[in-house]
Automatic annotation (TrEMBL):
Residues 16-81 form the RNA polymerase sigma-70 region domain. GO terms for molecular function: DNA binding; sigma factor activity. Pfam families: Sigma70_r2, Sigma70_r4_2. It comes from the Bacteria. GO terms for biological process: DNA-templated transcription initiation. InterPro entries: RNA_pol_sigma-70-like, RNA_pol_sigma-70_dom, RNA_pol_sigma70_r2, RNA_pol_sigma70_r4_t2, RNA_pol_sigma_r2, RNA_pol_sigma_r3/r4-like, WH-like_DNA-bd_sf. This is RNA polymerase sigma factor SigV. Keywords: Sigma factor, Transcription, Transcription regulation. Residues 105-155 form the RNA polymerase sigma factor 70 region 4 type domain. Belongs to the sigma-70 factor family. ECF subfamily.
Length: 170
């Protein structure tokens, strides 16, 4: 059984600690809950330490992003199998503080996108990954990422224009 050396574990731990806010933000963009996002990052770190898939330390960025994205998607799949509670119960159980978004319209429009489109937008523009890195993280062809990004931005533009027109009318 191949085991990580202490040096490799330190490289992973140092990288994660240096970029922990970015990974939290990425997980939060999927689950919209602070505690769940923290759990996802923690699970991702554990998976990274146990994983034997990092062959080249220079690829750690896209490698760990891929782990966070996959852990987030796994969490969402598990959550879909759970019973949904009504809105009142959810509001009663929310913590006293929530993450603040400066642009609620953009947040709402992003949430309306399918996970395939939302992933490319979040990774490209919120996590500032290059298109090639997004493709590597999501396991897609670069042209597929470009196509999804183009379509997602087109959908976002339409959604934001509709919302802005609705505000002017009222």
């Amino acid at each position: 059984m191949l085991r990580r050396t202490p040096r490799q574990e330190k490289v992973i731990a140092d990288y994660v600690m240096k970029h922990k806010e970015q990974f939290y933000r990425l997980a939060y963009s999927y689950v919209h809950n602070q505690d769940d996002a923290l759990d996802i990052v923690q699970d991702s770190v554990q998976k990274a330490i146990r994983a034997k898939t990092l062959k080249d330390e220079t690829a750690i960025k896209s490698w760990f992003y891929k782990i966070v994205v996959n852990t987030s998607l796994d969490f969402l799949r598990r959550r879909q199998k759970m019973t949904v509670v009504d809105e009142f119960t959810m509001q009663q159980n929310l913590g006293s503080h929530m993450d603040h978004y400066e642009d609620i319209d953009l947040e709402h429009a992003l949430n309306e996108l399918s996970p395939d489109y939302r992933s490319v937008v979040v990774l490209r523009y919120f996590e500032d990954l290059k298109i090639e890195e997004v493709a590597d993280v999501l396991g897609l062809n670069v042209n597929t990422v470009k196509t999804r990004l183009y379509k997602a931005l087109k959908i976002l533009k339409i959604q934001l224009e509709v919302e802005n027109q609705g505000e002017r009318v009222e």
